[in-house]
Structures are given as structure tokens and as C-alpha cells.
Design goal:
It is built from 13 helices and 14 strands. It is an alpha+beta fold. The strands form 4 sheets. A 4-stranded mixed beta sheet has the order 3-2-1-4, with helices on both faces. The longest helix has 22 residues. 40% of the residues are buried. The mean pLDDT is 88.
């Protein structure tokens, strides 16, 4: 009997479109000889929809969001889940939901309650990695170097904007980056070189989140490492995008056709291994399982700063994470998806063994 593979995508998040790109690429790679694929689309309003079993033949993003079966608003999340989860045979869930309400531990908690194997990080590691402020505390505890930063909360800002601005200028200085604490894909991030830009950047970031991280800029290169695995994670060769953008924002990441990847990144002797080791340390410090991409800054003096961990990195054919694995050990995209499913099933089996019976 084939394994039922439930693919969750879309989501009530500003990263909805990124999720659709990831989902169509993953779905096209699935081995239909081994899996029956059941897509579950979550609309931007949070409505759960499914067209039932789906063939990947000629699949497009438009088909993923426009099937007639999606148009029944009477069906609830519970009805969708009870219907598909009641199907007989082995099953596994692949949540491809970027950002809030999907990558932040909420969906992982639901899947834990359903007691089904699922791809990617668990509740705690998903929550920690998406919340940049909490992640930085974990990195500090693990003695992993990062750039100077401060955290600002909306209530503090509402009470005294001028005090927050002064604190940033005194503690961080310019240039600095203002980031919503719990978003990815560079959405809502601003590079600020003066008070006017800082004011605008903070106001924009607070439209996405009630907590911000404000960081000192590190001039240098952005180096990325892909990590995979549960108890014994492996790190890929480091890679970097070659570009001429001062700020690598959403438009730069997803719209610039001139981007090229350098994998492995050209690094001094010994630095490649050090970065791979640091990536695994950070991965384990956050309790990550399944996968994550670990991002570093390398300044002109050779100092290395860990920027952030992305627990569900971009996963299209042209995203850094799968390409790094292909150029590290020859793992093809479809093989990588298979490995991630295998890690999900192994973790679930191990967890079942730990549960005692009354």
C-alpha cells in the first residue's frame, strides 16, 4: 500500500506566495509509485481546502489554488483533517507553510496532537527559530558570535518613540537593520542609515509584528549552510549568492534573475569546516530536526557572525538549500525530499517508542 503524503501549503501568512512556489516544486518531485499525494491548501483567510488525490502531471500554481473543490466554504479544518486522516495505510505530512501560522510551532503542535509523522522541525525548534529575538538568546547561551542587536516591543514604542530611537542610535548606530522578530523571506526588513529611515523602518516592521530585532550592519559576505538530520545532523558545503545589492531584500531574493550561486563558497583554508561545524552547533542548540538553513556574515577581517536560522528555507529547484546538497554530495531534489520524509518517519517512530502505556 502506498504511503499517503499530505502536503500543506499556502497559509495565513505574508509568506503565502513563497509557500505556493515551494509546494508546486515539491509536488512535481514526488515519486507517485510510492506516494499518494493529497494537497491541503490554506487560503490567506485561513480556510482549509482540498481537492483530494492529486496527480502531478502538468501541475501549476494556478491549479493548486483554483480547483473547484476549494470553493466550498462550509468545510472546516476539522472536517478536512478528519476526512483525509481517516484514509487507511501509512501516512506522513509535509507542512510547506512559511512564516507565521505554519513555521512558528502552531502547525507543528496540531500535527503532534494528531500523532502523525511530519517533515521538519518540532514545536519548540520551529517557534525558536522563527522568533529572531528568542533565537539570539539561544545563540548567546551557546557562545556563538552574532552582531550587536536590541529588541524593541510595540508597547515601548507606543509609549515613547523618541526614547527607542535614541536607544538604537546609542546602542546600535548606523547603518542598522530593523526586522520583524517572527517573519522570513526578508519581508518587513529595512536598512537604515539615518533617523528618518529608522523611524520609517520601525513603523513598517511594527505593521507585521509586535516585536522587532534591530541589528548593527556587518559589512561583508553572506554565507549559507544547509543542515539535515535528526540526532546526527549533517552540514552541506557553504554557499553564497553573488549579487550587487546593498540590501538583499524580498525583491532581490525572488525577482532578480541575475543572481548566481557560488557553491562551494570561496573561503580560506579551514574556514569551510569551521562554518559547517558552527552550523551544526546552532542547529542542535535550537533542538532542530529535519532541516534548516543556517546563515552567517563574514566580514572583511575574517570574523564570522551567525545571522539567523531558517527552519523552513526556500525549497524550489533554484533555492540555495537543495542546490547546496546537490553540489555537496550529489543529492538530487527528489532524493532530498525522500530523505526529509525518511527523517520525519524515523523521528515519529522513535517518539512512539518512548511513550508508555498505562
Amino acid at each position: 500500500m502506498k504511503t499517503k503524503l499530505y502536503v500543506l501549503y499556502g497559509g495565513k501568512s505574508v509568506e503565502h506566495e513563497v509557500s505556493l512556489k515551494t509546494a508546486v516544486t515539491v509536488l512535481l518531485s514526488i515519486d507517485e509509485a510510492r506516494y499518494e499525494v493529497y494537497p491541503i491548501y490554506i487560503t490567506p483567510d485561513g480556510l482549509w481546502c482540498t481537492p483530494g488525490h492529486l496527480s502531478k502531471e502538468g501541475l501549476t500554481i494556478e491549479q493548486l489554488i483554483a480547483e473547484p473543490a476549494f470553493l466550498d466554504p462550509a468545510r472546516s479544518m476539522g472536517e478536512i483533517l478528519s476526512g483525509v486522516m481517516a484514509l487507511p495505510g501509512p501516512k506522513v505530512v509535509m507542512p510547506l507553510l512559511h512564516g507565521s501560522n505554519g513555521e512558528d510551532g502552531t502547525m507543528q503542535g496540531l500535527l503532534e496532537l494528531l500523532n502523525v509523522p511530519y517533515v521538519g522541525n518540532g514545536v519548540l525548534s520551529a517557534a525558536l527559530t522563527l522568533d529572531k529575538a528568542m533565537s539570539k538568546q539561544i545563540l548567546a547561551q551557546a557562545n556563538i558570535q552574532q552582531t550587536e542587536y536590541m529588541v524593541s516591543r510595540f508597547e515601548e514604542w507606543r509609549m515613547d518613540e523618541a526614547a527607542v530611537l535614541r536607544d538604537v542610535e546609542h546602542s546600535i548606530g548606523y547603518p542598522c537593520y530593523v526586522k520583524p522578530a517572527s517573519l522570513g523571506s526578508s519581508i518587513g526588513i529595512s536598512r537604515c542609515t539615518n533617523r528618518g529611515e529608522l523611524l520609517a523602518g520601525i513603523r513598517e516592521a511594527f505593521s507585521y509584528d509586535k516585536k522587532l530585532v534591530i541589528e548593527r550592519e556587518v559589512e561583508g559576505r553572506e554565507i549559507q549552510v544547509a543542515v539535515i538530520g535528526n540526532e546526527r545532523p549533517l552540514a552541506s558545503l557553504p554557499g553564497e549568492f553573488i549579487h550587487d545589492h546593498t540590501f538583499f531584500d524580498y525583491e532581490s531574493k525572488y525577482m532578480d534573475k541575475r543572481l548566481t550561486m557560488s557553491i562551494p563558497a570561496k573561503l580560506a583554508d579551514g574556514l569551510t569546516q569551521r562554518i559547517r561545524e558552527l552550523a551544526i552547533r546552532a542547529y542542535q542548540a535550537h533542538g532542530c530536526e529535519g532541516l534548516a538553513r543556517v546563515d552567517f556574515f563574514l566580514d572583511s577581517e575574517g570574523e564570522l557572525f551567525l545571522n539567523e536560522i531558517n527552519a523552513l528555507p526556500g525549497f524550489t529547484n533554484f533555492s540555495m538549500y537543495p542546490v547546496m546538497w546537490e553540489r555537496t554530495d550529489g543529492t538530487a531534489y527528489s532524493e532530498l525530499v525522500e530523505k526529509l520524509i525518511g527523517h520525519a518517519i524515523a523521528r515519529h517512530k522513535n517518539k512512539q517508542m518512548l511513550q508508555y502505556t498505562r
